[in-house]
Design brief:
Number of domains: 2
Distance between the termini: 42 Å
CATH class of the largest domain: Mainly Alpha
Strand content: under 5%
Largest sheet: none
Shape: globular
CATH architecture of the largest domain: Orthogonal Bundle
């Protein structure tokens, strides 16, 4: 499994190394690449990974706060995509992010169960870890670290902040990606922004 993982250091460089396979050097669109990938076309799989892996890695890293977890999530996202039928109801990138979000949720629940078991073994009482607040060093003087800010939020709030303010997705696209109504997206975003304002003085 390990040798099939798209290396992190290649995400930002290999995409320019070669064009997506096509007739007489023509660049294929996402839908055709995915169709060929699902049929086992290795060149198409590599082309699709090189085209979207850097973006997906950024999303995964912001969600997980860990580069190794992010690489695993990206790999699992593509493996899932190659086995799943794309209906074309959204852009391929939005669809890939949706798969990634599901994988991240599965990872989060798995880690929560592991932490619960460890806590119960140690003391018989489960006390969930609390994310740290603002970085030390004096509020506005401190350089706000994006990963620290995101990790201070609940998973639901982290998702909407990431997709809206970092990835610049529309409310409709976020709702589709997360599988919730637009109103839920708006309320979560409002609460997430308020939480960031309380925790980080330099957040606007």
């Amino acid at each position: 499994m390990e040798e099939n993982r798209p290396p992190q250091q290649q995400y930002s460089h290999e995409s320019a190394a070669r064009p997506a396979p096509g007739e007489a050097g023509a660049v294929l669109d996402d839908r055709e690449l995915l169709s060929r990938s699902a049929r086992g076309d290795v060149d198409a799989q590599h082309a699709l990974i090189e085209r979207h892996a850097p973006y997906l890695f950024g999303v995964a890293h912001a969600l997980s706060g860990d580069a190794h977890d992010a690489e695993d999530l990206v790999q699992e996202t593509f493996m899932g995509a190659f086995r799943t039928r794309f209906r074309g109801e959204s852009s391929l990138r939005t669809w890939l992010v949706k798969i990634l979000m599901r994988r991240a949720g599965m990872l989060r629940r798995s880690r929560r169960r592991e932490q619960s078991n460890i806590s119960l073994d140690a003391s018989g009482v489960h006390e969930p870890a609390v994310a740290s607040g603002a970085p030390g060093g004096g509020g506005a003087d401190a350089r706000l670290d994006l990963s620290v800010m995101l990790q201070a939020l609940s998973p639901e709030h982290r998702q909407v902040i990431l997709l809206r303010e970092i990835e610049q997705m529309s409310y409709e696209a976020i709702a589709e990606t997360l599988g919730v109504p637009r109103g839920t997206v708006e309320s979560r975003l409002h609460r997430a922004r308020e939480e960031l304002r309380k925790r980080f003085k330099g957040y606007l």
